Amino acid sequence: MENQLLQDKVKEADVWRRMAQPACGDALMHQIAHCLYRLQGWPWVALAEVDHQQVHLRVLSEAGKPKPVFSYPLEESPCRLLYPVGQQADFQVFCNNLKRYPHWRLMQQLPARTYFAQRLGDAIDHRQYHLIALHHLLVDEARLPKTLMSTAMRQIAQDKQRHRESKELLQLQQITQHPSVAMAYVDSRQRLGWASPGLCQLLDSPLNALLLQPVSTLFSSLQGSHLAMCREQPLSLRQHWICANGEHKDLTLSLASLADGVLIHVHDPVHPDLPDSDNQPEQLANRLEQELARLQRKQEVAALLFIEFALSDTQTDPELAVDQLQQLSLPLLQSVVRKEDYVALLGHRLVLLTACFDNQGEVPRNQLTAIADKINQKLAPALRHADFCHSYQIKIRLITSWDSDIEQVLDSDNATVWMSNGANNQEVAITN
């Protein structure tokens, strides 16, 4: 008995020694798979990515050796337990009743009886990953290798972070050396500290004449408040430009915060990813009409969230204020919601159409409140330095299969005012 315990301890020590060996990419995955197999006999390990309700196996390893990869629908697998709609997800999921998933492709190819998976805590590049371990025997929950799986996921997250940083550094080196790309670094004193050859060409000036110039003198649309705002959230501005040959152009200034300054990218065309504001009411109505038809077919629930902004009394140009509001808040809101959600700007009001809520049992007020909380956490700091808006209000409107009048659905007077926890005021005031 003592000899067996000693052998188990030696095996466990060897597994952790192997886990500590440096590895990256697929080699890291096969190392993890080998350790799980050696520790407790788990034959199969896979790294999976979820995208558009599909699970894509990026690496599948059998005791440390590669196997062909494939994809399958999220809904047909136990992986769906890691991604519940509108609920807080568990980071580890255990299932030893895989007969509940007869259409799961992985189950059809491997004689697995126990499923154990862990989700990557933070999305890398807005992508969702999880690690799957499969056993051909029934494994008691008390004997799951939870510590080893958590360690493996930390190693995977660090590996992907290093890969991303290396890729970003290479891209930045290529970009800054390219003569047609216009970029600049602005220091903490809001002066130009560096400019790419492309920016020098655009400004028709040598680099030594641009260095230490106040950036606001180079770009009329760029103010100190914008540099402060971009520290909360990446920001894009429109800049009217007259080229050396007399040609008039509309450019985009994309601002991103660095540790001790701001990186500015000057490019054309203007906001290719932002919808045309003139067509947004019609586009929103079309999307809402499609959504109402879907709700009537499937008897589900969707929702509209209205974010209504109160412009500052000192704002003399309402059109400019709405333009600034679109440039700042629309990309910010799109970064918070899901890809399948739809965001539109109607005047000084943002409208979010979000679908696919589960209508089983309780009306999904908690889900909508969570979305409103997330939006508020993004908007409040980003608008803190904006002089064109002094407050905003969030309203929630549920949509069911009984709704048919689009005009009535879009009337925010029929929506419920959301208030943050402990708030006694319907509006969120923005303080500098």
Question: What does this entry look like structurally?
Answer:
The protein is of the alpha+beta class. The chain folds into 3 domains: 1-174, Beta-Lactamase; 183-267, Beta-Lactamase; 280-417, Alpha-Beta Plaits (2-Layer Sandwich). 35% of the residues lie in helices and 27% in strands. It has helices spanning 2-19, 25-40, 105-109, 146-177, 197-203, 207-210, 215-218, 224-229, 280-298, 318-336, 365-382, 406-409, and strands spanning 44-51, 54-62, 65-67, 71-73, 92-95, 114-119, 128-135, 182-187, 192-195, 235-242, 248-258, 261-267, 301-311, 342-346, 349-357, 389-399, 416-417, 428-429. Strands 1, 2, 3, 4, 5, 6 and 7 form a 7-stranded antiparallel sheet that branches.
